[in-house]
Amino acid sequence: MELIRHAINFLSDPKILITIASLLLLASLKYPGKFYTNRTAFIVFGGMFLFLGLSVIDRNFRLIVTKPDNVPIVGMLFLVPFFTWFSLREAVRNDERAARGEPLIEQGETAEKVLSWPSLVYPELICMVLLTVLLIGWSIALKAPIEEPANPTASPNPAKAPWYFLGLQEMLVYFDPWLAGVVFPGLIIVGLGAIPYIDTNPQGNGYYTFRERKFAIGTFLFGFLILWILLVILGTFLRGPNWNFFGPYEYWDLHKLEALVNVNLSEYIWVKGLHMGLPTNPLIREGFGFLIILAYYLILPGIFARKWFREFYNNMGPIRYHVMMFLMLTMAALPAKMLLRWLFNLKYIVGIPEYFFNI
Amino acid sequence: MSNFVDRLKTALQALSPDNIGTYIQESQIYRSIFRVGVPDSDRKRMLVMLGSVFLHLHPVKVRKSGIRMRYTWCMGGITFFLFLVLTFTGLLLMFYYRPTLKYAYVDIVDLREQVPLGIMREIHRWGAHAMVIAVWLHMFRVFMTGSYKPPREFNWNVGVILLVLTLLLSFTGYLLPWDQLAIWAITVGSNMARATPFAGSEGPGAALLKLGDVSLVTSSSDARFGLLGGRFVGESALLRFYVLHCVGLPLVAGFLMAIHFWRIRRDGGISGPL
Questions:
Q1: Do A278 and A352 fall within a single domain?
Q2: Which of A4, A227, A274, B21 is 20 to 30 A from residue A129's alpha carbon, by CA?
Q3: Closest Cα of chain B to A149: distance in Å?
């Protein structure tokens, strides 16, 4: 029992959790026909219910999961995987139909028009009634919490942002506030808005499919499931005092110490590599970092256009392609920085704290 | 006399359980409100959709594939319904709540302690959490069905802004109970504004904006100050968030929702394979 607990605590470490989740997503998209079936749904959701049911026995687990404000996030823990599985199963079914030359699930009924009253209005009414019942039941069962009155002099530990922003707060582990709190959220909004103008693939409009839009769906799922939902869940359930990591069965110890051993790239290069002192001029000191960032944004798109993304480049044209690459590379910067941190304890690629300019 | 009895009889007959429905439906009052009556024929089912301001959001006829629960998950509808629930419960809460340092917290405690069977704050809070999740799932569905593709690019963008507004509505509402959770969550959130490039006092580039020796972007003039109306989360932040939460953001959201729904119709209804 203790062993299982330790194993689960160990597996929930952000390094391992994010890596496993990413690999799992990748594997499921590689073999969607095998993964998005009713059987896997039984196994996955059965396993999740079992995990939740057994874990509630643990005091530390119960404390964090049954916090009233965390209840909807537990709900989300089931809803998001469910709808991911559901939509991809529909996609797999449609792709199989298309491969056999049969019409899509949606297609048979597209030409047919029905009267909104009652075909649309009744289901809507039922939906509203059910939702009202759910909300009232939920509200009777669970009181809205109210904590101690606001006290600007006593900051709680951990001080957490509202739950839907915890993915952004989790990014603060890897990036400074100007990126994690301002630039990246801004680019998420811009990037989402840009999707229809970047994605020139005319297929898969108005029906579930995976085969016709593998790249678009894969990218979106990675961003939505791993970089947003998973980070929200991590930030809610697994981050305790001082934003330290705590396993689901671990006690939130205020005095847990995490060694801060992160090193800047400039130190790696000048001190450890070249055995010199750090140059005093920050621009020279961070020269290598700047070069890496420039290369990342200026050289990679060209290489991709010539090698793996040649077809994209030809179909999209240079402007669309470069906007897409900029957004994609920015999105990839988060997992990239995560890996650098986990593997090399890298703190900043460019670190100029004098001007609050750290990357 | 017998004449009067006869008339009374007919009147009572009309009010008998068998006929009372028809009697009401044929009365002048009822007809003045519901022009069409019971939609028991296809013609009336069409007229009823056209005649009601609420129902005319929908077209008279819809593609059968578009309204399947398996296709839409009803997530957009759920989001809209939750918005209405939140507007209604929020309005009721406004009767009890005063956005000042002196009263804000006490009013919330009073709502809890003094209002028998009161669950409006609960519905408002849980509904708000649910709406955030529903918006995300709605976006997820629209993406997975490729419904952002032409001709719906613009409406996808309206949706993205509505998603951001939903988060902002929830964020501004978070502060109003004025408890420890509230001010520290908003403190953590709004501290980010301090790091805005050029516009935040601790953001990159802010140090470059100077007139002689005088810094233009300081903690009393940066983006965070503008957001909170002060250097920390205090009385003016509470008022700002209250006004935005109850009036500003819902107005903008309502405006954009009108565009969102209108454009669904203009862009060919709920998406489907061509």
A1: yes
A2: B21
A3: 4
Supply the range of the domain harboring residue A22.
Answer: 2-106+159-171+206-243
For residue range A101-112, what is the model confidence (pLDDT) as tens digits?
988 888 877 778
Exposed/middle/buried for residue A10 (C-beta within 10 Å: 0-12, 13-18, 19+): exposed
The mean per-residue pLDDT over the stretch B238-249 comes to 95
Nearest by CB: B184 against A156, A181, A204 = A156
The count of domains in chain A is 2
Q: What is the pLDDT of residues A182-214, one digit of tens each?
A: 999 999 999 999 999 999 999 999 999 999 999
pLDDT bin (cut points 50, 70, 90) of residue B1 is low
Mean pLDDT of B159-175: 96
Residue A97 with chain B: CB contacts under 8 Å: none
Whole-complex ipTM: 0.94
Q: Which residue has the higher pLDDT, B274 or B83?
A: B83
A12 and A77 both lie in a single domain = yes
Does the residue A135 lie in any domain?
no
Give the 3-state DSSP-derived string for chain B, with helices as H, strands as E and coil as C.
Answer: CHHHHHHHHHHHHHCCCCCHHHHHHHCHHHHHHCCCCCCCCHHHHHHHHHHCCCHHHCCCEEECHHHCHHHHCCHHHHHHHHHHHHHHHHHHHHCCCCCCCCCHHHHHHHHHHHCCCCCHHHHHHHHHHHHHHHHHHHHHHHHHCCCCCCCCHHHHHHHHHHHHHHHHHHHHHHHCCCEHHHHHHHHHHHHHHHHCCCCCCCCCCHHHCEECCEECCCCCCCHHHHHHCCCCCCHHHHHHHHHHHHHHHHHHHHHHHHHHHHHHHHCCCCCCCC
Please count the residue pairs, one from chain A and one from chain B, whose beta carbons lie less than 8 angstroms apart: 277
Class level of CATH domain B69-266: mainly alpha
Quick check: B114 contacting A, CB < 8 Å? Answer: no
In angstroms, what separates the C-alpha of A228 from chain B's closest C-alpha?
Answer: 11
